[in-house]
Automatic annotation (TrEMBL):
Residues 4-90 form the GST N-terminal domain. The keyword Metal-binding does not apply. The lineage of its organism: Bacteria, Pseudomonadati, Pseudomonadota, Betaproteobacteria, Burkholderiales. This is Thiol:disulfide oxidoreductase. Residues 94-210 form the GST C-terminal domain. Keywords: Plasmid. InterPro entries: Glutathione-S-Trfase_C-like (IPR010987), Glutathione-S-Trfase_C_sf (IPR036282), Glutathione_S-Trfase (IPR040079), Glutathione_S-Trfase_N (IPR004045), GST_C (IPR004046), Thioredoxin-like_sf (IPR036249). SUPFAM superfamilies: GST C-terminal domain-like (SSF47616), Thioredoxin-like (SSF52833). Signal peptide: none annotated.
Length: 210
């Protein structure tokens, strides 16, 4: 694990930013939180657009001793970068086990989180309520099907904690009240076990009240 590097995580209390923060916490990387005020449009300021021209959070900045800082946008890229910096903590060393982690990670990213984001944009006035309802239904069905991933193994992708657990947790938390928990005993056990991890719990809260 690298300890001489300084990281800064720009973000706000959103799922994408929280997943990046949890990855840094679980990787044990030292970082400073830079809160970006989305409500007041700080992400559209010239200073922020100089960092990320598309004006989105999260952004990870890694200072370099010789040269300009490394700037990484995209929450999933940040998570994978953190995983590489801390071998064995977020991705298993064994390539077969790692393939299972990627399979589950991308299941949550593409089949659950992305569908949930698409549904979000169809909400509200001027939205498309029927389309939104269809997408939410589809997203919940996919998430509920994850019960099978944790019926014989403690984590979403096998015997060890991984980025698949991070991707699965925040979206599960965001729809917690809509899930039929009585039919999901394995998912419930997994959910409680992940929430109890100290580093995970820290990452969940880093953007609160900033
Ligand atoms: N695919 C990007 C999405 C980033 C994204 O959409 N961030 C949102 C917050 S979760 C944002 O910055 N929204 C502000 C805006 O679009 O104006 C990622 O995973 O990092």
């Amino acid at each position: 694990m690298e300890m001489n590097t300084s990281y800064q995580l720009y973000g706000a209390p959103t799922g994408n930013c929280i997943r990046a923060a949890i990855a840094l916490e679980e990787a044990g990387l030292p970082y400073t939180v830079r809160a970006v005020d989305l409500v007041n449009g700080e992400h559209r300021s010239a200073a922020y657009l100089a960092l990320n021209p598309v004006g989105k959070v999260p952004v990870l900045v890694e200072d370099q001793q010789n040269g300009p800082p490394v700037v990484i946008t995209q929450s999933n890229a940040i998570m994978l970068y953190a995983a590489e910096k801390a071998p064995g903590r977020l991705l298993p060393d064994d390539s077969l086990a790692r393939a299972v982690v990627y399979e589950r990670f991308f299941f949550f990213v593409t089949d659950v989180i992305a569908v949930s984001h698409a549904a979000f944009f169809l909400r509200g006035s001027g939205g498309v309520p029927e389309g939104q309802a269809r997408l939410v239904e589809r997203m919940l069905a996919a998430l509920e099907s994850a019960e099978r991933f944790v019926d014989k193994e403690p984590y979403m992708a096998g015997k060890t904690f991984s980025i698949a657990d991070i991707a699965a947790f925040t979206i599960t938390q965001s729809v917690e009240s809509q899930l039929p928990w009585a039919q999901l005993p394995n998912l419930r056990r997994w959910y409680e076990q992940i929430a109890a991890r100290p580093a995970f719990a820290r990452g969940l809260k880093v953007f609160n009240a900033r």
